[in-house]
Specification:
This protein is α+β, with helices and mostly antiparallel strands. About 30% of the residues lie in helices and about 40% in strands. It has two domains: about 110 residues, Rossmann fold (3-Layer(aba) Sandwich), CATH 3.40.50.10330; about 150 residues, Tumour Suppressor Smad4 (Sandwich), CATH 2.60.200. Strands 5, 6, 7, 8, 9, 10, 11, 12 and 13 form a nine-stranded antiparallel beta sheet that branches. It has a four-stranded parallel beta sheet with strand order 2-1-3-4, sandwiched between helices. Strand 12 and strand 13 form a beta hairpin. The structure holds magnesium ion (MG). One of its GO terms (cellular component) is plasma membrane.
Length: about 300
């Protein structure tokens, strides 16, 4: 019998899995799987469960928000062999699900997990010990995303709390850093940076480009230098949120790996969750590392 590990976060997205759970388990059972089910109990639990019970499974399915997906993949990465992964989005922020074209209808996503097609995607390796699926970021606009309590996230949604972050722009902090990769070397004061492998990132329109691929071994990088005047800051914000013309403060490029070195520890956010404070960060694209199940796209 095929073996599946199903990990779900019962609290994400206003506990929307509650009414769907029986049907989801029925879909898995009908598809011929012997099930191991783990209900996450606290932060970090999805990662532990994926590591502890993921070995020798044919398929691991997780349900929750971006954080649950991140934890599950982080747990799987510690295994010797990686099972295929199914994802049933349930959080208020499911940026990556839309990038992957995974349905927001939980039952359709459950069907795709068992009868779809395995699609290899790149995983971001962060400093040897952490991973991200679609975004690693620091600086302005990021603090709010992991400091906002879950309930507020559920009510407001992603865009709203991004905009809430703009209230604190008067106190915007800049970081002295050096950024190194094969393509480019930058030095100076930066207020924001994001390394992504996704088609959409919350409210940020400036990053969205047509030709992003999730399996090309490359990240899209966006770095923003400290503005000198209020007008510069307005231009930056317009660029980030309204997709106006880029300006001299904006650096955009692609790379397979990069290093960021700063004078002081910087708080990083990985897939919307706190990723630790670090002075030196190395980020590597692990090409086609995990296969995600999704509906057959013809
Ligand atoms: Mg890519």
């Amino acid at each position: 019998m095929k073996k599946m590990l199903f990990i779900f976060n019962p609290r994400s997205g206003k506990a929307q899995i509650k009414n769907k759970l029986v049907n989801i388990l029925d879909i898995f059972t009908k598809a011929g799987y012997e099930l191991t089910v783990h209900v996450t109990q606290r932060q970090g639990d999805a990662m532990e469960a994926a590591f502890r019970y993921g070995e020798n499974k044919d398929l691991v399915v997780c349900s929750g928000g971006d954080g649950t997906l991140n934890e599950t993949i982080s747990g799987l990465m510690k295994l010797n062999e990686y099972p295929d992964l199914g994802y049933i989005p349930a959080g208020s922020t499911n940026d990556f699900a839309s990038s992957l074209k995974i349905s927001k209808d939980m039952l359709k996503a459950a069907e795709a997990a068992v009868s779809g097609q395995a699609y290899p995607i790149d995983i971001g390796g962060f400093c040897e010990d952490k991973y991200f699926i679609y975004i690693a970021a620091f600086g302005a606009f990021t603090e709010v995303s992991y400091l906002t309590p879950q309930d507020k996230k559920n009510v407001l949604g992603h865009q709203a709390y991004m905009l809430e972050g703009m209230k604190s722009l008067a106190s915007i902090k800049s970081y002295s850093m050096r950024v190194e990769c094969e393509e480019i070397m930058l030095e100076g004061e930066f207020i924001f940076g994001m390394i992504t492998n996704t088609i959409s990132v919350g409210g940020f329109k400036g990053l969205v480009t047509q030709d992003v691929a999730l399996d090309d071994g490359e990240f899209e990088v966006l770095l923003i230098r400290s503005p000198k005047t209020a007008l510069d800051l307005t231009n930056i914000i317009n660029y980030m949120f309204l997709k106006e013309e880029p300006n001299e403060y904006v650096h955009k490029f692609r790379t397979r790996s990069l290093k960021l070195i700063s004078d002081e520890p910087i708080d990083w956010v990985l897939d919307g969750e706190f990723g630790g404070a670090r002075r030196e960060v190395s980020i590597t694209n692990l090409e086609k590392k995990i296969r995600i199940m999704r509906k057959n796209l013809k």
